[in-house]
Amino acid sequence: MRLMYVTRRPAGHPPARQYASRMGAGGPAVLGPTIVTESRWQLSILFGFLTLAFAVALARGMAGAQTTSGRVAVVVFCVVLVTVFSSAWIRTLRHPACLEIMEDEIRYVRRKGESATLPRHQGNELFFVRRNRSGRIWTLGLATTGTDTVIDLGLLFSRKAVQQACRARGWRFR
Length: 174
Fold this sequence. Notes:
The protein is an alpha+beta fold. The protein has helices spanning 40-64, 68-94, 159-168; strands at 4-7, 16-19, 34-37, 98-101, 105-109, 115-119, 125-133, 137-144, 150-154, 172-173. It has a six-stranded mixed β-sheet with strand order 1-2-3-4-5-6, covered by helices on one side. α1 packs antiparallel against α2.
């Protein structure tokens, strides 16, 4: 059983079908691209941890500060950081990056609207790669066998959801 629903799109774009990865893939989709968004729980764990850490730092800093100016500095510093992380959390949940999967191409659309495309004419066999971004940071990438074209998916996409949606559209994985 597959659950899909129509999402709001900017003016000029056709309606897209949303892919609910928890429901599985049961065959090819009918119209429009299949959309896979970033994992909300991974985003929530990341930003929730950062927000909680600075909220605890605020409480500990208030209790440990000896002077009024020390307390004010702790409050200002921690409140600014909690506000920044909370607003970033809300912004990323409201505007997630997404992967639009169609029969003829796969398009990765970032939060700011830029996109990267992986066309089927380069091949229809896909595989996941780990890309090194500046030292210790590794991200997930999606590539076509036989080419060096890679779409950098970042850290927050579920491999299983991407595989299910791509297979539902006729793409193969090695």
